[in-house]
Amino acid sequence: MVLERGSYPQDLLSSYSSSGFGTSSEGLPFGDKQALIVIDVCDAYLTPGSPLYAPDRFHHALSHIERLISDFRTRARPVIFTRVVYQNPDSGGNWYKQKIPKGLKCFDAGNVLGDFPAQSTICRPRPGETVIEKQFSSSFFGTSLASVLLGLKVDTTVICGYSTSGCVRATTTDAMQYGFHPFVAGDACGDRHAYPHEANLFDIQAKFGEVVSTDEILERMAGKG
After folding, report:
1. 85-125 pLDDT, tens per residue?
2. What sequence ranges are listed for the domain Isochorismatase-like (predicted)?
3. Residues 203-219, buried b or exposed e (16+ Cβ, 10 A)?
4. Are strands 79-84 and 181-190 parallel, antiparallel or unpaired?
5. SS3 sequence, 80-104?
6. How far is CA 86 from the centre of its chain?
7. Rounded distance between C-alpha atoms, residue 16 and residue 163, angstroms
8. In angstroms, rounded to a whole number, what is the distance separating the alpha carbons of residues 208 and 110?
9. Do residues 146 and 140 touch, judged by C-beta distance below 8 A?
10. DSSP designation for 168
């Protein structure tokens, strides 16, 4: 568990554990109906010159994301992709441009940086796979994602993608609030810097979900047959 990692200050761990955060010995159950949610993996984060590009930070996660997608496809388990699209200046998410005026232009309709990554055929939706278009951080907010998961009788969401401190965290929080057990593949998530990445994984583990490695997800999937 993240709260047991030796890299965190002892006073931080003591403060959280004394209040009961992250102390469950069992954690959330890994159910029998899993779906993989691949959050906003697009060229905006992977292309040099893009305002959202961060060398190595997002590329490192990409190979783990590919492993998860390949495994879920092999097992015929649902793979759901999300992407941000602002169709016009009145799209709700455009309000975020007051906060991030440069970066969010990548997601204007027609901007190729908002497309699924050209360098990875695995991280591009296949026919029949669900694509959720969103305008806000959570993949659930203002979308049909909860209805899609309920229709598939999903009980466990495996979450990966970009960025850890933004859309991954927001989606994880809402997954818990909608009643789906969130398992975040920490090494299959990326952020602009190690600090927000690790801080948000720590907080997710303490309060909202289970943060595990891609290897552990694959082991759990294998155990389900």
Report:
1. 999 877 777 777 788 878 889 999 999 999 999 999 999 99
2. 35-216
3. bbbbebbbbbebebbbe
4. unpaired
5. EEEEECECCCCCHHHHHHHCCCCHH
6. 20
7. 24
8. 35
9. yes
10. I
Length of the chain: 225
Q: Which residues pair with 23 in a beta bridge?
A: none
Strand partners, 212: 185
CATH code, residues 30-223: 3.40.50.850
Q: Smallest Cα–Cα separation from 125: which of 73, 74, 199, 182?
A: 73
The pTM of the full predicted model, rounded to 2 decimals, is: 0.91
| Of the candidates 11, 86, 2, 72, the residue with the CA atom closest to the CA atom of residue 44 | 86
Q: How far apart are CA 61 and CA 63, in angstroms?
A: 6
Partners of residue 111 on adjacent β-strands: none
Where would I find the beta strands (DSSP E) of 24-152? 34-39, 79-84, 130-134
Contact 134, 81 (CB under 8 A): no
Catalytic residue, from 42, 160, 167, 189: name it. 167
Q: Does the active-site annotation cover 106? A: no
Give residue for tokens 């759901």: 80
Nearest-angstrom CA–CA distance, 201 and 197: 6
Sequence ranges of the domains in the chain:
30-223
pLDDT in tens, 186-217: 999 999 999 999 999 999 998 999 999 999 99
Could you tell me if 40 and 91 are in contact, meaning their C-beta atoms sit under 8 angstroms apart?
Answer: no
* Position 112, amino acid: V
